[in-house]
């Protein structure tokens, strides 16, 4: 089986949304000596972009987007990141994104989709998880020299923490260097503007467009089409 055929098989596994099948397919690719970064960019990421496009066109629904994103994240975390860490080569990046669900909130579906779609588009994503204190967002943003901080809130009460993140970045002296995007069920464009954020995204596919616009990255830019 050719390398291109294996990449196609990985993309098909992403579209099938079968986590175990995707794990097996990626392991097979690695056993044949295919570079893990190529597996990410030419297989996994392309598959996720197809999922995102089908979601935009109404062919896939939210459940398909969620399932595909979760399957991809499992493979990245359990197999590909450790493999990439063994080598000297690094995946090229369009920018660094610090992502998390705000303190007091443990919802992660929306955040996970945003992370997966940004990763597929070519961004380096640092996912802090859920119930993340404001100080952790700021600390990580400074540590990795982040281009964007993204924070999700699924409750009207925890939404207020998004305002605290903006203020903390100002107090840390890095607000002008970092774009800030917010999302979540109670979040609106008006709210983001009110608290001093830079962008609002309703879903993961939209988040990619928002981030590219904020960073002045040409539409359609990514590593592999």
Compact summary:
This protein has two domains: 84 residues, Methyltransferase, Methionine Synthase (B12-binding Domains), Chain A, domain 1 (Orthogonal Bundle); 119 residues, Cobalamin-binding domain (Rossmann fold, 3-Layer(aba) Sandwich).
Question: In words, what does this structure look like?
Answer:
The chain is an alpha/beta fold. The chain has 2 domains: 3-86, Methionine synthase domain (Methyltransferase, Methionine Synthase (B12-binding Domains), Chain A, domain 1); 96-214, Rossmann fold, CATH 3.40.50. It has helices at residues 3-16, 19-31, 36-56, 62-86, 109-121, 134-144, 160-172, 189-195, 204-214; strands spanning 96-101, 124-127, 148-152, 179-183, 199-200. The radius of gyration is 17 Å and the shape is globular.
What features would you highlight for this structure?
5 strands
Q: Order of strands side by side in the largest beta sheet?
A: 2-1-3-4-5
Cα gyration radius (Å): 17 Å
Biggest beta-sheet profile: 5 strands, parallel
Total domain count: 2
What is the β-strand count? 5
Average pLDDT figure: 92
Topology:
Blueprint lengths: L2 H14 L2 H13 L4 H21 L5 H25 L9 E6 L7 H13 L2 E4 L6 H11 L3 E5 L7 H13 L6 E5 L5 H7 L3 E2 L3 H11 L11
Parallel strand pairs: 1-2, 1-3, 3-4, 4-5
């Amino acid at each position: 089986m050719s390398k291109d055929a294996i990449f196609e098989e990985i993309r098909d596994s992403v579209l099938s949304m079968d986590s175990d099948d995707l794990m097996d397919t990626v392991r097979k690719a690695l056993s044949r000596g295919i570079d893990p970064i190529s597996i990410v960019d030419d297989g996994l990421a392309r598959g996720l972009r197809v999922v995102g496009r089908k979601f935009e066109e109404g062919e896939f629904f939210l459940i398909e987007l969620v399932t595909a994103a979760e399957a991809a994240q499992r493979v990245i975390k359990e197999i590909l990141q450790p493999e990439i860490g063994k080598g000297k080569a690094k995946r090229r990046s369009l920018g660094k994104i610090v992502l998390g669900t705000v303190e007091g909130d443990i919802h992660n579906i929306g955040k996970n989709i945003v992370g997966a779609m940004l990763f597929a588009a070519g961004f380096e994503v640092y996912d802090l998880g859920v119930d993340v204190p404001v100080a952790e967002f700021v600390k990580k943003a400074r540590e990795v020299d982040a281009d964007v901080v993204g924070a999700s809130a699924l409750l009207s009460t925890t939404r207020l923490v998004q305002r605290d993140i903006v203020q903390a970045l100002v107090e840390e002296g890095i607000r002008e260097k970092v774009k800030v995007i917010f999302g979540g069920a109670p979040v609106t464009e008006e709210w983001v503007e009110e608290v001093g954020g830079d962008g609002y995204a309703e879903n993961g596919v939209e988040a990619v467009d928002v981030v590219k616009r904020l960073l002045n990255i040409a539409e359609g830019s990514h590593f592999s089409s």
